[in-house]
Amino acid sequence: MATVTTGDGQLVSYVDHGGDGPVVVLLHSFLMDATMWAPQVDAFGDRFRLVAVDERGHGATPANGPFDHWDVARDVLGVLDALGIERAAVAGTSQGGFVALRTALLAPERVAALALLGTSGETEDEQISAAYQQLAEVWIAQGPESVVEAVAKICLGDHDPSEWTPKWGAVEPERLRLIMNALVGREGVLDRLGAIEVPALVLHGTADLAYPVAKAEALVAALPRAEPLVLVEGGAHFLSLTHAAEVNPHLERFLSATL
């Protein structure tokens, strides 16, 4: 694990898995960290240089005040700057997809391709946003054990959450509020995605409990160079982790063809 301090003073933690292959930035989901991408590192880390970032407020990257996903996209660009990487593919699951889209909008010349998994280009539904914020307050007031089962079900489906629940339990109340506010307060970017003129792959699980398939269909329709939508049967919301065996061949094929 390495760190960089960006131009605006933000400390960002990341793992550069190294190698001589084309660079792929890996952006994790809400409440997760860079180790979420272990199945992809194992599957094709010998063919690509995988750089997994701890997003702001997650893992070893602090959140020192309110922020949004545009700020996190700038953090990602700061990591690329520190590594001397001019251009890379960017892959993101759920929240990581929000950041990946914003990275491509901020610096289109730096992004070679996008892989978007279990994500959306739209703002959060008002009722869902309110429910998530209430869940966070219950978590803070009553402890994570009061909600962890529900969180695991939404995010991981039937996947064993035991590797992650201790990490979730260690999230401080103020950090939880900051990352939750960034998640539910994001604006929609669907109407701007026509400006992203790089190859894009969108994957979505049919058992995603956070976002219906329609969110993925809207991404494919909005991105000019998107491939046909890939549906992963039974795939959960964080499908790059929970259904890696089904996801990885699609990712590897796409990255090999576009980089």
Task: Write a compact overview of the structure shown.
The chain is of the alpha/beta class.
Keywords:
8 strands, 10 helices, globular, 16% strand, 259 residues, eight-stranded mixed beta sheet, alpha/beta
Strand count? 8
Shape: globular
Largest beta-sheet details: 8 strands, mixed
What is the H/E order?
Answer: EEEHEHEHEHHHHEHEHH
Termini distance? 25 Å
Q: How much helix, percentage-wise, in residues?
A: 40-55%
Describe the protein's architecture and organization.
It is a single chain. The protein is an alpha/beta fold and about 260 residues long. It is built from ten helices and eight strands. The chain has helices at about 40-45, 70-85, 95-105, 125-140, 150-155, 165-170, 175-185, 215-220, 240, 245-259; strands spanning about 1-5, 10-15, 25, 50-55, 90-95, 110-115, 200-205, 230. The longest helix is centred in the middle third of the chain and has 17 residues, at about 125-140. The chain is globular. The two termini are about 25 Å apart. The model has no long low-confidence stretch (mean pLDDT about 95).
Question: How do the helices and strands line up, and which of them pair or pack?
Answer:
Blueprint (H helix, E strand, L loop, with lengths): L1 E4 L5 E6 L6 E5 L10 H7 L4 E5 L15 H15 L4 E6 L1 H12 L4 E7 L8 H17 L5 H9 L8 H5 L3 H12 L15 E6 L7 H10 L7 E3 L6 H4 L1 H15 L1
